[in-house]
Amino acid sequence: MTIRNKLRATLVVLFVFIVGLVGLNFLTFAQLEGDSPAVNASGSLRMRAYQLAWLSACLVSADEAEAPHIRTAMLTRIEEYDRILKGLEKGEAELGLGAASDEAVLTQLHTLQPLWQTYRDDVRAVAEAADEGARSAANAEVAAAVDAYVNNVDKLVMAFDNASQAKIAVSKKIEIAVIVVAFLIFAGSSYLMITQILHPLAAITASFREVAGKEADLTQQLQAERYDEIGRIVHSF
Known about the structure:
By secondary structure, this protein is an all-alpha fold. Helices cover 83% and strands 0% of the residues. The chain has five helices and no strands. The chain has helices at residues 3-60, 67-90, 103-128, 132-212, 229-236. Helix 1 packs antiparallel against helix 2, helix 1 runs antiparallel to helix 4 (132-212) and helix 3 (103-128) runs antiparallel to helix 4 (132-212). The longest helix is centred in the C-terminal third of the chain and has 81 residues, at 132-212. The radius of gyration is 36 Å and the shape is rod-shaped. The relative contact order is 0.11.
């Protein structure tokens, strides 16, 4: 193989490596960015659960003018909650959510769903209660259940966060492997340049100096079992 072809092959390998590295970084960032909406959405479930409990408590003593607005807000929050919870499991393009694939996340989602249904029914009972006494009794159920429910929401948030951290850990391992490969490519390229080009050129240069010197030493000889550009120069010499 000629030196030109060796250099071309080396450049091609370096180019493919650089393109692969850039593609790997984009892929890693895309995965982490895809996890971010899910982590944020799962975290918002905690706030929304407390918000429903607060609206429920406000409705107990609300007057006739305020009560319809509070009921509407409660039902709207419930619909939003249903949509987010469904999106976290099966994906929701408008919310930027992809379908969950991590086993721990899916397990916690399946655990949370019946708990949410119970909590949602308690909140609906407050919104649908006919009088203040019934609303107060239903609200007591909501107040008693909210903390336990939010604890399970926290487990879901932790599951999403752990899944994201696991991807980051894998990404770090891949980056370390890429660094090792980069070092090997650098070492191989350096070895090729030194042994196949620089050392032979140094030997030829030294011989030319001897021939061109004052003594004009014409006994100089070079040996090369190669047939690339440098090999042809050595044989011609």
